[in-house]
Amino acid sequence: MGLPGNGAAAPAGLDVKQACTVLYNRLPPLQAAQTQALLSPVVGSDCRVEWAASSQSDVQMVAGLTQWDDHRVVMIALRAPVREEVLARTVAVSPMPEDLRAYLLNHKAAIRLLYVGDSEDRLEQLTALYRVAGALLAQGGLGLLNERAALALPAALAFTYLAQLGSPSPPIPLWTGAVTFNMEDDAAAQPYFLRTYGMEQLALPELGIFLPDRLLADEAYHTLINIALYVVESDPTLQIAAGHRTEFKGHTYLLTDPDITGPEFASPSGLLMLVEV
Predict the structure, then answer these.
(1) pLDDT digits 0-9 by tens, 238-247
(2) What's the chain's Rg over C-alpha atoms?
(3) Distances, alpha carbon 54 to alpha carbons 1, 66, 135, 244, in Å
(4) CA angle, 16 as apex, 149 and 166 as ends, to 5°?
(5) What is the pTM of this model?
């Protein structure tokens, strides 16, 4: 598979801090009042939504903007599917029933969301971005993509996580995915490697773990996600690094430097391995 990248190129001049994409069979009416009505109850009445052109136009791309407080989210509506390489990094590698995978792969349109607001808090940025994504998904969306997280979520699962936005524990599975790699040709004693993608959106290290059996991937995923949540909720002055220990469900894990090169271990914010001790 192609490894995650930073997503589609942003329009020139925009400082894009976070991004995600809503998939559709057909674009909804691009009516500011409708999106604003869905968004205002959760972000406040000062929310403003604008679209540059009517959804009745035959143009392939329509731009819009949502803003409130310090937050601004650019919306780029496309009457075309997203690129095949993006689908390979998201829909193709995310766990879901095959009928849902085919459903997402066969989408016909999309709205790309770009956070360009002034908040410097990365969790606030992601929360604001996904507030807008939720409002758009409620208008007939099929699912959500986050390329930096190697993640695709069908609509029903996305709504489960979207309902948790603003709660004391952020719904990090909304923007943090995981991929299992077959390492049988590697010298490692265990043939599978599972790692997160998306923690770098919060400027935090990714987490990984070796597995003796791919059947253990689901359990290992829950371990990684829960430890990732602990990392997100930790005192920001605490720099999580190799040598730290953490516990989950009676197991103690040492965070270590993988000391292995290769694209599976690459991350802009670093990667820490979990070793049970």
Answers:
(1) 778 888 898 8
(2) 19
(3) 38, 16, 18, 54
(4) 60
(5) 0.90
